[in-house]
Design brief:
By secondary structure, the chain is mostly beta strands. It has a single domain, classed as Beta Barrel (OB fold (Dihydrolipoamide Acetyltransferase, E2P)), CATH 2.40.50. The chain contains one helix and eight strands; from the N terminus they run αββββββββ. The longest helix is centred in the N-terminal third of the chain and has 8 residues. The protein is globular, with a radius of gyration of 15 Å. The relative contact order is 0.20.
């Protein structure tokens, strides 16, 4: 079992799971054996609320995976969660509507193969995320 298996399992269940450090209580992504913030080796898996703020994004005009060719252009973003993690995920928001700091919310639509995928959608306005 890899360090990231819990993350994929959570998405399959429609939940956003992150590893939270037992020492500094900050969450991290991607999953790793130790805390990237303080170096403490122990953590626990917690469910993130799924709301966050858009930190940055890029619009992909070339499909680096053949399965995504029909979806070009698509948007990949960095989302800051209040739990302290910064998550990389696809955005279900058109690039013209994106603004740094905008509120987003995790969603878990099913892909063409029936599996759930993590996508961030526009969230309610006024959402602040502290780091």
């Amino acid at each position: 079992m890899s360090e990231a298996d819990f993350f994929r399992s959570g998405i399959d269940e429609g939940r956003l799971l992150v590893r939270r450090c037992l020492a500094c209580e900050r969450a991290a992504y991607p999953p790793m054996p130790g805390c990237p913030h303080c170096g403490h080796p122990e953590g626990e898996i917690v469910e993130a609320e799924g709301a966050g703020a858009l930190y940055s994004w890029t619009v992909c005009h070339v499909a680096f995976d053949p399965d995504l060719a029909a979806e070009v252009p698509y948007v990949v973003g960095l989302v800051d969660l209040p739990e302290g993690a910064r998550v990389v995920a696809r955005l279900a928001i058109g690039p013209e509507a994106l603004e740094a700091g905008m509120a987003v919310q995790a969603g878990f639509p099913r892909g063409s193969d029936g599996s759930r995928q993590l996508r961030f959608l526009a969230g309610p306005p006024g959402r602040e995320v502290s780091k």
